């Protein structure tokens, strides 16, 4: 039987608004971010999508988003769902980052940050462990843009460069899980309730 994972990016934060690098460091949701989470909640409610298990990154922005979306504080926080750590590059202006996907795997190691492949291994293993559980049929997991992209690269069928972009805050990645494999069904922007796949 096919299971469903709804993987989400958190709502807009202060650092997103200020265009600052935000990985392991945290900043609060903005008013817009709170509104985005409410729109995601509406999306799920309008489609009568209910979750049997809830997970979030340990970072405040992900936890706050999940609590708004579900109205619940009964969820599991997992470090494996955290955003990529950028080391001493945290909090810098985004325009200082190099451009191009080739930089992401190792560039931040020199600053004490993580590699993209390291992030990919930890989030992919965590999501497989979550969905392999017998009673997990319809799961919500709130994570981060870079972490979601690194996971999606493991199952993406098209040009990998199409994935390296900033997905909208609160983007919903709808994934089917069967026979220990994930398949991307759709990507929804809850602000428009339209597919952006």
UniProtKB/TrEMBL annotation:
InterPro entries linked: His_Pase_superF_clade-1, His_PPase_superfam, PG/BPGM_mutase_AS, PGM_Phosphatase
Superkingdom per UniProt: Bacteria
Pfam families given in the database record: His_Phos_1 (PF00300)
PANTHER family assigned: BROAD-SPECIFICITY PHOSPHATASE YOR283W-RELATED, HISTIDINE PHOSPHATASE FAMILY PROTEIN
Protein name: Phosphoglycerate mutase family protein
Provenance organism: Enterococcus hulanensis
């Amino acid at each position: 039987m096919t299971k469903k994972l709804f993987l989400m990016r958190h709502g807009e934060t202060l650092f997103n608004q200020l265009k600052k690098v935000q990985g392991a460091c945290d900043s609060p949701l903005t008013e817009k971010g709170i509104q985005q989470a409410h729109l995601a909640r509406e999306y799920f409610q309008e489609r009568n999508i209910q979750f049997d298990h809830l997970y979030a990154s340990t970072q405040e922005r992900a936890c706050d988003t999940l609590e708004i979306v579900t109205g619940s504080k009964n969820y599991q926080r997992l470090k494996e769902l955290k955003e990529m750590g950028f080391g001493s590059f945290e909090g810098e202006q985004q325009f200082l980052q190099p451009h191009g996907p080739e930089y992401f795997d190792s560039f931040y190691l020199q600053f004490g940050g993580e590699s993209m492949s390291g992030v990919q291994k930890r989030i992919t293993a965590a999501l497989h462990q979550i969905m392999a559980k017998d009673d997990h049929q319809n799961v919500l997991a709130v994570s981060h843009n870079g972490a979601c992209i690194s996971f999606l690269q493991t199952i993406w069928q098209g040009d990998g460069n199409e994935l390296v972009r900033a997905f909208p805050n609160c983007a919903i990645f709808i994934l089917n899980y069967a026979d220990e494999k994930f398949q991307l069904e759709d990507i929804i922007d809850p602000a428009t309730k339209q597919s952006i796949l």
